[in-house]
Structures are given as C-alpha cells and as structure tokens.
Predict the structure.
Amino acid sequence: MTAWDAAGGVLVVITLWLLSFPTVGQSPFTVSGSQDVYQAEEHSNITLTWLFSVTADMSDSLIIDVVYVEPLRMVFHYNHKRETALYPEEFYRGRVQCDPELARKGQIDVVFTNVTLDDTGTYRCFVSVDRHSNYTTCGLNVTAVSRQPPQENSSPAGRERIFCYVVVGVLFITLVTIYVLQFGFVFCTDWNQSSSSDLFSE
C-alpha cells in the first residue's frame, strides 16, 4: 500500500466519522433514493440513483460520499473545495462512473458496468453542505447468470436436413421392395415353366 492509498483511507474514515455526527437544527435538505433495492444480473450494468434538493448557494460547499457499507469501501467521493480522486478505491476504478456536474444539481447517478457478485450489498450516500449532512441507503442484489441447457437445433436448415433423410429412406425402401417383387416374379415364372416342362416330358 502506497502513502497515497493510506492517506486516502484515512480521509475516508475521517469524512464518514464527521458526517455521522448530528447537526444543530433541521437539515435544509434530505437525501432520498429512487429505489430501496436494485436487482441486476451478473456482467450487466446498473445505475444507483439518489436525489436531494439544491439551493443556489449549496454547490460551493458540497461534499458527496457514496460508500459500500460492509466491508467499508469508498465508491465515489466528491469535494467541491478540494481536488480529490473521484474513485479512491481500485476495486471500482474503470467500472463506476458518476457525473459531478449532475450531482451538483441534486441527482447522484452512480453507474456500475459489468457488475459482479461481489457488488451485492448495502450502499450509503452521504451529502454534506455547510456542516449539515443527510444520508440514505439502498441495497444491490446481483444474481448469477443462468446457464440454459443447449437446445435442439430447430432451425429451418435442420428441418430441411431431416426431411431429406426421410425422403432418401423412403426411396431406398421403395427400391428394395421393387427389387424383391421383381426377383420373386422372375423366380415364380421360371419355376412354373420348369414344372410345365416336367409334366409334358412324362
């Protein structure tokens, strides 16, 4: 672990610790989620959305943290006053996208691409403005991809192939039957002729 990773981890812990303290007076905003539980299939994409009301003077002191609750992992971090990494955790880099400009307008869309079973769990969105904070949680349930058993070939080409086999089989049986009948007719004719000759010779 590098010094930057250690510093980032300390920053995450301190930020969440500060946000956990209750604020004096009523919070001027409330964070709400569009869904309580999201469902996704493994290797698919899913967007977790949170909303909060925004006033004109909010964006200058806005801090947003989206965390995976257990084990604690920072998914997305935005601080308007500081240049910080939006995705501190290596686990989410390249798989998670969140537009800071849209977040400053009150809509936090965290887009997960190629979700895995390890993404299943509880996510918490913290929003802090001028020492006021609010948060809400949602769940994400990722299910494994169902593997269907191979189905029989029912394509038109397969049906045509089966039809050809049937036609060839019927023709073969017909030819064999004709050959047997011809052989039987010739045998009977020869036998009758030989029998007649024996009678006349006697």
Summary: The helical segments are 3-19, 100-104, 156-201. Confidence is low (pLDDT under 50) at residues 1-7, 16-25. The chain has two domains: 3-143, 153-202. Residues 134 and 169 are 78 Å apart (CA to CA).
